[in-house]
Amino acid sequence: MKIIVCIKQVPNTTEIKIDPVTNTLKRDGVPSIINPDDKTAVEAAIQLKEKHGATVTVITMGPPQAEKALREALAMGADEAFLITDRVFAGSDTLATSTIIAAAIKKLGADVVFCGRQAIDGDTAQVGPQIAEHLGVPQITYAAAIDYDAAREVLTVKRQFEDRYQTLEVSGQCLITILSTLDKPRYMNVWDIVDQDEKEVGLITYKDIEENLNLADIGLKGSPTKVKSTATKQFDKTIETVELDPETAAKTIVDALKARHLI
Amino acid sequence: MAKNIWVFCEQRDGQLQSVALELIGVARELAEKTGEKVCAALLGHKITDKAAELVAYGADEVHVVDDACLEKFVTEQYAQAVTALAKKYEPSVILFGATSIGRDLAPRLSARLKTGLTADCTKLEMDEEGNLFMTRPAFGGNLFATIICPDHRPQMSTVRPGVMKKLERDDARQGEVVVESIEFDTAKFAVKVVDEVRSIQCAVNIEEAKLLVACGRGLKDVKPAYTVAEKLGGSVASSRALVDAGIMDHCSQVGQTGKTVRPEAYLAFGISGAIQHLAGMEESEYIVAVNTDKNAPIFKVANLGIVSDAAAVMKNIEKLL
Q1: What is the rounded (10 degree) CA torsion for A107, A112, A117, A119?
Q2: Helix or strand or coil: residue A88?
Q3: What is the pTM of this model?
Q4: In chain B, where are the structural domains located?
Q5: What is the CATH number of domain A2-217?
Q6: By the CB < 8 Å criterion, does B258 face chain A?
Q7: A interface mutation test: which of B10, B112, B210, B306 has the most A CBs within 10 A?
Q8: Which CATH class is domain B200-320?
Q9: Are B107 and A250 in contact (CB < 8 Å)?
Q10: pLDDT digit string (tens) for A33-80?
């Protein structure tokens, strides 16, 4: 089985702060990480490899510094890694991004594609299903557990909804998007850290995949959606904060709710 | 030419989801701008009788695809049905709920229809020319971006449940119900549903609660919250921290990666209020926050903020009721 895992390097948004003076995001010094759902996708792929034998290829699209995320995935145990990077890819929205990544996957060839469910910087969850459509393969999103039946060559996926789970089966090529709750990603292995130093991170540029790619469909020009404007969040509530002992606090809350006919 | 505002009306087990009605509500507002119609796409099996409800909530036309293959949600089956409708009627806009169904189906369709898609919108506006302005949070709610899709139709968006308001039900409203027949390409149905299990903890939908007792890391024990919630006539919600810790189920989670709620009262106990959490609850009518840290960001959105030990306050409230 050949598994390709798509990952994204993201700023650790839990550490993003707003500059109170300029009202802009302070990204300086915010560390970059492998997107959490994607890291679990790498873990899931390596587990399949360990149980059933597979090759795990990790790919990412991004600027040259995204190589660091690929090296981390190699140190977890991925077999090979490719950085999809080119100036003509810049400014791509989710549809254009998925078009590029799908072209790269076509070139590399894969039986199964894993993605994280969504990235913490954009939270769109769109690129995975869009890649699946470009590849013409079925998708299963929100995977909370994955199992492979080698005898039947069937993947069984526990698919999470807000109020239920589905157990789904798929055979043949497919794309699965994975929840970080599926499993905890392993730490980088000491030997794999040493090994990954010797591994090459392959480069995929526009020229490498141009037979599967139309310039009109990628980059800023090939993106149907455009950002019109951005704004930061404003809070405008009337605020009343008091320090109280638990007993008085309880009475204050119950009185306030009663006064507003909420209870 | 592309025209009309379409809504993908999600149903589960034959029950229309609240978000479907909310989307019809916002679609009505958008349609007023351009004088277009609000069209509902209702997909499922044995669901045709639900069409009248969609009319009562504001749909001008309901297009029903009733087929056994649509009984349970599977991406390809649903994608084929919506694609067929989109090709036949050429909508200007298609709205989906940003649920685990809408967020699976809509991106698949955007690639199939070769158009743009904006995820998780919290605000939609339209100009007289029919251009949709789609506003969504990004970077965990730190930033808001307004997105347009100027040269492609349909303009597609998923919209957060609980954010838009449904109209008052009016059974006197008139609308047209069109039963559609679709030729499915069953050869492409590669994913098989083996089993479907409703999760018990999700029996309560926190999006519909009038009062929520929300638990955070500051509570060692969440049991008293259930007692208090029951006595107050509300439900229990949770911050992400307790979901990640395995104490609360994901379906009770409020915030960017959970649900958006706007109950009449939101009581936050031991929740610090990361911006991702605030994004899911700040529209609540009345917010009470209890936390030991007086600098906790939750106090920025609270109407009543109390610096005190959350567990002890909870215990005292229980005594008072």
Answers
A1: -30
A2: helix
A3: 0.86
A4: 5-188, 200-320
A5: 3.40.50.620
A6: no
A7: B306
A8: alpha beta
A9: no
A10: 999 999 999 999 999 999 999 999 999 999 999 999 999 999 999 999
